[in-house]
Protein 1
Amino acid sequence: MAQRNTWQRDRVRSALGDAQGFVSAQDLHASLREDNTGIGLATVYRALAALAANGEADQLQSPEGEAIYRACASEGHHHHLICRSCGTTVEIQAHDVETWAQRTAATHGFTQAEHVVDIFGLCAACTARNRVPH
């Protein structure tokens, strides 16, 4: 069943597009609350789930286990490099990972294999800020 497009979903989509990097539903809700939109947290969760299901948003799990979202800049399957400090995100293609995943699945008799690979680290700017002079 197709979901109707509501002004609330449009506003969540817009706020997600304005966010820097990946954000949690709670953080996005706080941003919407600051703008006095009247959009509730449950609505934000539903809208983000719909956007992710439609391919309009990337959804992944942070290292802490929280679902985080980002407006999708690429179509199709891709991976991310994500800075743990500032949230800078780079969408990447990882052909070696694709080959490895399919080969590993086939070795074990699996078909229609899917995978999620996201790499968390520190971007160059955060690494430079964290360096301590000797």
Protein 2
Amino acid sequence: MEQQTFAPAETMQLHELLNFKTICMTTSKMMEGVVFDQELKALLEKDVRLSIPAINDLQGLLGKAPKLR
């Protein structure tokens, strides 16, 4: 069976998505410590909790991508 890979442009887009998602999650995690509103704090915690599997999925997809030089 033929192995599926990504085009170089798709690989770069995956990198961009992974970077964006990681930055967003890091920001949410850092803001949890300085936010006093409980609703906002709950939203930030939910964002972090949901971001972790999304980041893992993106990393898994990048594992299938060809190595760029």
Protein 3
Amino acid sequence: MSAQESTFHGFANPVDPSPAELRAWAYQPDSVPLTSMPQDWDLLVAGDHLVQTLFELSMDPACPARRFALHCLYIYAADGIRTNFRAHPKRRFRKLVEQAERAGDQLMHNWAHNSRVLLARPDLFAYRDWCEGGLVRENRRIG
């Protein structure tokens, strides 16, 4: 039985969910509403430990929490770029961008494009767009 087919009963520790827990929740996000999560949960999960899971969820058009996962990818990209990759490995970031360009749909192409533009022009960072979900809600390209 896959995570998508199993029943999700909650996180053992919502501040530090496992990849399997995050994946199971993403396919049944109403089981634990975002409003019941710790404050700034998006910032907490947008790290190296879960980035591959977030990327896979973002690549899946059938994932009910896809937009949330994509929002976390925007946070991850901005955090890496703005810290000159002290926060996250540049190699991992580049691999995700290349994979999104190669195999992603328009949402993922926009994320990859925006990430590359921010990498070249960090002055284009706007907290509202990258950390509050503006680029996900508007599905637009910068630069």
